[in-house]
Amino acid sequence: MAATVRQVRPAAGAAALLALAVCLLPAVARAQLRVGFYDTTCPNAEALVRQAVAAAFARDAGVAAGLIRLHFHDCFVRGCDASVLLTVNPGGGQTERDAAPNNPSLRGFDVIDAAKAAVERSCPRTVSCADIVAFAARDSIGLTGSVSYQVPAGRRDGRVSNASETVDLPPPSSTAKNLTDLFAAKNLSVEDMVVLSGAHTVGRSFCNSFVSRVWNQTATPPAAIVDAGLSPSYAALLRALCPSNTTQTTPITTAMDPGTPNVLDNNYYKLLPRGMGLFFSDNQLRVDPQMAAVVGSFAANEMLWKEKFAAAMVKMGRIQVQTGTCGEVRLNCSVVNPTSSSSSIEQLASSTPAVDEDAIAAS
User: Fold this and answer.
1) Burial class of residue 212, CB neighbours in 10 A (0-12, 13-18, 19+)
2) Do residue 152 and residue 187 come from a single domain?
3) What's the alpha-carbon Rg for the chain, to the nearest Å?
4) Is residue 337 included in any domain, yes or no?
């Protein structure tokens, strides 16, 4: 009997390593996403998510911007695997959700939970939280900008969430080079970055994300300033709103697009040349020649931007996805499922370098 056990273990280990290798191949995972993924297993999945989003939007139009941002923050850290939703990390430590870039500014978790509950009642253990986040973002874009597009689905949920990995998120203090590099690391181009930045046309921001543009907090006492590229009159308005002692926990917010804060349009691009980009990173799109050219084209043609925005959202939704037997379909979006054999594979994957698919193709 003991001999039999010794013979099985290597095979089991080889199978686990094979599964890990497959999960680490980005091209394989992306290829498994498809439109209509739930047509036979849960045909009303997208309708149920749409209903949950519409109900939340009716109560608070601002939640749409939150859901769009939630998808972005999920995909940029560990890929689009709903890791941003986890409240507990099985491996210990702080989760993405509690990290400074997400707490307290990220919202929409309750909408995802409501959508998941509705889907679970209809199709138990079938629809992933990662796909629900992607559907909810698409529906929010439809409600705020009358933009519709199809979402390839089939993502699986991750079992790891580390606050330290939120360094992959571009901070509002990013330079043009920072932005270019962070997006390139996710296989997104400069144009993709400028396109997706247009999401700043909806939603609100906490003062802490831009206070350094209107107050020199290192001076004693803090001194009023106007950051380069910021309209003096706009700076005065922001300074009147945000106190000089603003911190991460200061609860005051302002609309990122003061003209049409709940409408997904191209007004963001029109505001940039007027010195009304709220963040330092927004102004970088205006001063960098390559980015400024793209900004100008979108300011002049809203339909062009909306078409490219939908395409960029689909492209972003393919970042480092888990599909097939990788990951899991969570029963509760905020916690991983009870420990299973698949969890050990992902825990190993979390500490294993990503496979270079181009190198494999060339070998």
Assistant:
1) middle
2) no
3) 22
4) yes
Q: Which residue has the tokens 């003062």?
A: 207
The residue assigned the tokens 């390839």 is: 152
Mean predicted lDDT score pLDDT of the chain: 89
237 and 274, same domain (yes or no) = yes
**Phi (first) and psi of residue 332, to 5 degrees:** -130, 120
Residue 73 annotated as catalytic? yes
Confidence of residue 90 (pLDDT cuts 50, 70, 90): confident
Give how far the C-alpha of residue 161 lies from the chain's centroid of Cα atoms, to the nearest Å.
14
Q: Which residues are annotated as a binding site for Ca(2+)?
A: 74, 77, 79, 81, 83, 96, 201, 257, 260, 265
Domain residue limits at 32: 22-168+317-349
Lowest mean pLDDT among 134-148, 212-226, 309-323, 344-358: 344-358
User: In which residue are the tokens 């991983």 written?
Assistant: 336
Contact 265, 254 (CB under 8 A): no
- pTM equals 0.88
* Same domain, yes or no: 84 and 47: yes
Q: Which residues are annotated as a binding site for heme b?
A: 200
Q: Which helix (H) or strand (E) holds 297?
A: helix 289-300
Catalytic hit among 30, 73, 306, 318:
73
Kindly state the helix (H) or strand (E) to which residue 224 belongs, with its residue range: strand 223-224
Confidence of residue 31 (pLDDT cuts 50, 70, 90): low
Q: How far apart are CA 247 and CA 231, in angstroms?
A: 23
Q: Detail the residues annotated as belonging to a binding site for substrate.
A: 170
128 HSE (CA, 13 A, CB side): 26
Residue 17 has pLDDT above 50, yes or no: no
List of residues 6+ apart from 114 with CB closer than 8 A: 52, 55, 56
